[in-house]
Amino acid sequence: MPAKLKFKLIYCSSEDPEFPSSELNAHSPHTVGWQSARFCDYPQELGFQFGANVRLSQLQILSHQFKIATKLELFIGSTADGDKPSYHKAKFKRLGYLSLDSNERSSWQARELKSVQVDAFGRFVKVLVHKNHINKLNMYSQVGIIAVNVIGDAAPAPPGAHPMLGAPVGGADPHAGGDGAAHRPPGKKDVSPLDDITFDLNFDAATAKQIRELHVAKDRAVKAEDYDAAKRLKDAIDRLKQVGARMAKLELRKKAAVESEDYDTAKQIKAEIDRLRSAVAYG
User: Please, which domain of life does this record's source organism belong to (predicted)?
Assistant: First the structure.
């Protein structure tokens, strides 16, 4: 079953020192994302590498709320068999593009999430980020991406497989489904909510890990037809999600207090976070 794939950002055209491209390597409530340099040239390029050849099923990209690209082009790449993996020497196949809304209707408050279903094999993903939408808040003509998530299988392509097997990402109807998602290739399974980009953005790493472990235990209980245990685990997951969401908000408040050097407030918030974490009953 397709699952969340680990990757590493290995190339970017430019970056704002306060919002470096390394921000895209991990997801958490504290993620601030990547932003291009001020008054940069377009398109900007982001390059991602996987630990091995993978089969991509879904790409998710969360845009900045006002530093918004007009278009994102997506590519899958790989090197020849036997060659050392190299992003700059890889051959890329264009998968298509995604168009982003100017976000004026939300007064540049909401972040647009693009999710697209693909079916492609490779070792690298390249994203070309085109020029920004113009608005009064984006004074330096930058673009920004908060987070990137990739769903797929860590499996090599079968012999003779085409680098792209599914429908193109964009073109005929880049806004299909109302949220810019391309049509799902036939036979694709839904992605687990635990692998969705929003999951890790809403919970700290420790809470996310605990929730995933409880889900695994609940699935085992269901398979064993131990429904009492399954219900207890489900209740524990629900409690942990509620507490985890509150802890994530408190962590953001604590971070803001530290940045403003209000250490008394930061200490109080930390104590509340510790109290919530220790009070959670896991079973």
Answer: Eukaryota
